């Protein structure tokens, strides 16, 4: 009985110390990257970091289903309107886990600033960041991102 009581006190003491520990420790949060979420863009519209391009997307299906392929339909425009001469590359990563998808995204230009991205699949629940790089003749490539929490 004394051993059981001593074990109880040890567990209680450890849990109290852990909960009252206010030191500056770096803990790995497996569920998500808090910083990325706080700075996230959880809308379906983004502007590239150079403010040249605006991107809008819709997923197919909507909502995205865990471990099933989905497509994204994107429209890219600039101050003059649809970006008919733009090129787009696309990918997705999980910031908290520092890995990407198990599939490779493929981008098809539909003309007049419209693109379809296929081969997308979120194989884990949590915070995903969609990465888009837009380029055009005579202009530097610019980056934009969207954040998605998968999958409700």
List the main descriptive attributes of the protein structure presented here.
10 strands; 2 helices; alpha+beta; Immunoglobulin-like; 152 residues; globular; disordered N terminus; four-stranded antiparallel sheet; six-stranded antiparallel sheet; 16% helix
Describe this structure in words.
The chain is an alpha+beta fold and about 150 residues long. About 15% of the residues lie in helices and about 45% in strands. The chain has a domain of about 100 residues: Immunoglobulin-like (Sandwich). A hairpin with a 2-residue loop joins strand 9 and strand 10. The longest helix has 19 residues. The protein is globular and about 40 Å long.
Secondary-structure topology with pairs:
Layout: H1 2-20, H2 34-38, E1 45-47, E2 54-60, E3 70-78, E4 81-82, E5 87-94, E6 99-100, E7 106-111, E8 114-120, E9 126-136, E10 139-150
Strand content: 35-45%
**Number of discrete helical segments:** 2
CATH topology of the domain at 35-71 and 86-150: Immunoglobulin-like
Q: What multimeric state do the chains show? A: single chain
Global mean pLDDT:
80
The coarse overall form would be globular
State Rg. 22 Å
Largest sheet: 6 strands, antiparallel
Provide the CATH architecture of the domain at 35-71 and 86-150. Sandwich
Q: Give me the count of strands.
A: 10
**CATH class membership of the domain at 35-71 and 86-150:** Mainly Beta
| SSE-based structural type | alpha+beta
The unreliable regions are: 1-35
End-to-end separation in angstroms reads 47 Å
Helix content: 10-25%
